[in-house]
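Subject: for your reference before the review

Hello V.,

The reviewers asked for a structural picture of the protein, and I figured it would be easier to keep everything in one thread rather than splitting it across files. Below is the amino acid sequence we used in the manuscript, unchanged from the supplementary table.
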Amino acid sequence: LTEDDVYCRCLSQTLCHTSTPVTVGVYAPCARRLYSLLDKVTGFMKEEMARREEAELLRSRQRPRSPEGWGLLLALWYLAFYKPVITELHLRRRNMEFIFIRFSAWQYAGCDKLWAGLVTTLCDSIRHHFGALPLSVYHVMGSRPRYAAGFSQREWVLKRGTCLRLWGLLAVLSAGLTALLVALLVPGVKENHALKVIGSTVASLSGSGLVLGAASILKNLFVSEKKKIERLTNSEKFTSQLGFMSKVRGEVEALVGFLAFMEIFERRQLRVVLEITSLDICYPEKVAGVLNAMNTLLSDANSPFIFLLAVDPSVIVPCLEQTSCLRGLADNGYLYLNRTVTLPFSIPEMGARSKLQCLEEAVQTREDLMYRIITRNVGRS
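And here is what came back from the structure prediction:
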């Protein structure tokens, strides 16, 4: 192992045991080295994830579920008719799934609101990971988990109100369709216009409730959270109102609730690792906007977010001190950065073994490097 491997393994072990939300400042002066370190941290966390899955399977004899194939139908069934419950059994689970999202601030540096790019990248990645259909159904019919009463181990509770309303609509719809068919097909009753009107009215009213529910799901299926936030940020009339940030925060809270639901369904802990890079080459006001978004929008007490802020502090601090967000903090950029970062992790200078490894990779051919990457991924899988 090189010195960088030791640093990254220590950081990955820390992230696997720390509580969320947490913001980790990965400080290093060389941008190219930061990307290499983030890749190492990702690899070590995936190894820990696989090890925990095997240990949990041996302990509980329960295999985790996935919203794919038949699992997707099961997830939709639970979303529609059951409420998730956080039990002692779930709290004892130690297996985790890390969802890695890399946000390059430079790709959104040209837009007016760089922080909106951070939120839309998060929403779009979660939607792509779990699929658009489960997230759309959750927006309409899903329930956020609640804690169990006492020592109950039931992780799912039937939605009696939803079931009664659904069966009531289906019963009324069936009665209306039956009356309409009788009025249209049965001889001697065809001339009864009142029965036709009653049957068609009852069928249309009861069916409209089902159609509205299906329309809401289809609307959320085609209009993603990313499009909603982009529409809000593009509206000059709405951005001047106080309700703008609450709307964006509402989308993020719905996303956090969906992740909490999927934790119970998949029988594992979920952690979203958001790697923020290239922030130190953006304009000062936009840098402050991203940090404020991390503090205000994405730091809910129950959110499963791990932020890896990969920056050079010697560049970020002067940017922050040029903005208006430091009023009242004695114009101290380091103080503001320390209030944002929960766990600072400074990377020391590159050691001898790390330098030899970089030199070896530099003199190798492209085919040798690709072969090394492939063999490394096979070993981790």
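For the response letter, the relevant points are probably these. Residues 43 and 380 are 7 Å apart (CA to CA). The chain has a mean pLDDT of 80.

Happy to draft the paragraph if you're swamped.

O.
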